[in-house]
Amino acid sequence: MNWLQRNIRPEQIREFSLLLLIVVAITIFSALIPNYFVPRTFDRIASSVAIIAVAAVGQTLVVLTRNIDLSVGSLIGCSAYFAGTMAGLDKGLPPIVVVLIAVALGVAGGIVNGLIVTLGRVPSIIVTLGTLAIYRGFLVDLSGAKTVTTDSLPKWIVDLPHASVFSLGKLDFTVSIVLTLVIVAIFQFAITRMNYGRRFYAIGSNPDAAQLIGMPLRSTVFTTFVLSGALAGLAGFLTLARYGNITVDNGRGLELQVVAAVVVGGVNIFGGSGTVVGAMLGAVLIGTLEQSLYRLDISEFWRDALLGLLILLAVASDAVILERLRALWSRTELKLIDKPPPQVGAVGGSPP
Amino acid sequence: MRNIAKRFGATQALEDVSLSLYPGQIHALVGENGAGKSTLIKVMTGVYRPDRGEFLLSGKPVTLSSAADAQQHGIAAIYQEPLLFPDLNVAENVFISHQNRGVMTGWGQMFRQAEEIFAALGVALDVRKPARGLTLAAQQSVEIAKAISLHVRVLIMDEPTASLSAHEVAQLFKLVKDLRDRGVAILFVSHRLEEVFEIADVVTVFRDGRLISTRPRRDVTPKLAIADMVGREVLVQPRKPAARGDLLLSVRSLGREGVFQDVSFDVHRGEVLGFAGLIGAGRTDVGLALFGIEPATAGSIVFKGKTEVIRSPRHAMACGIAYVSEDRRQLGLSLPQSIFANITLPVLRRYLNRMGLLRTAMERETAESYRKRLTIRTPSVDLPVNKLSGGNQQKVMLAKWLNTHPALLILDEPTRGIDVGAKEEVHAMVGKLAEEGIGIILISSDLPEVLAMSDRVLVMREGRQMAILDKKDATQEAVMTEAMGQQGAVH
Amino acid sequence: MKALALLKSWEGLLLFLLIVIVGLSFENSPVYMGVGNIVNLFQLEIEKIIVALAMTLLIINGEIDLSVASVMGLAACVVAWMFHHGVSMPLAMLAALVAGAVAGLFNGFWVAYVGLPSLAVTLAGLIGYRGIARILVEDRSYGGYPAWFNAIGQHPQFGPLTVSIIVFAILFVVTAVVLHLSGFGRLVYVMGNNLQAARYSGIRVRPIKMSLFVASSTVSALAGILYATRLGSVRGDMAQGFELDIITMVLLGGVSIFGGSGNLAGVGLSILAILNLRNGMGLANITGNTQTSVIGALLILSVLVPNTVDMIRNKWKGRTT
Question: What is the pTM of this model?
Answer without folding.
Answer: 0.83
